[in-house]
User: What shape does this take?
Amino acid sequence: MKRRDFLSSLLSLIIFIVSGKLLLDFLGFRLKKSHKIRILRDEVTENPRIKEGVIYFRDRDGLHILSGRCTHLGCIVEFDEKSGIFKCPCHGSEYALDGSVIKGPARKRLKKLDYIVDGNIILTAVD
Ligand code: FES
Assistant: This one.
């Protein structure tokens, strides 16, 4: 192999590796990007509501913000007012108000989300 061919191949390999790394970094960034949600404090009642995949309600213990994404395969749960629990419409998992699993196939509880209160606005983020 001539020196010129070797350098050309080496340069091609470096470009391939660097572009692959940049692509993976970009995709990783896109996948990890979280979705910010704004909730007005006036919207928060004792009846759980779900907005853009975020569950919010208050009780005597305070404000509760949970991810509404089922931990089985990621469907968004619904609140069943009659039974007072969250039910997943996809495969039937059920969660208590605190997010703990009542019935599978889900095994993990609904994720508690961090949030900040800024005046009348509650800011949180969900994946
Ligand atoms: S995605 Fe919720 S039970 Fe399967």
Summary: The chain is about 25% helix and 35% strand. The chain has two domains: 1-33, 35-126. The radius of gyration is 23 Å. The pocket of FE2/S2 (inorganic) cluster is lined by residues 70, 72-75, 88, 90-93, 105-106 (CB under 6 Å).
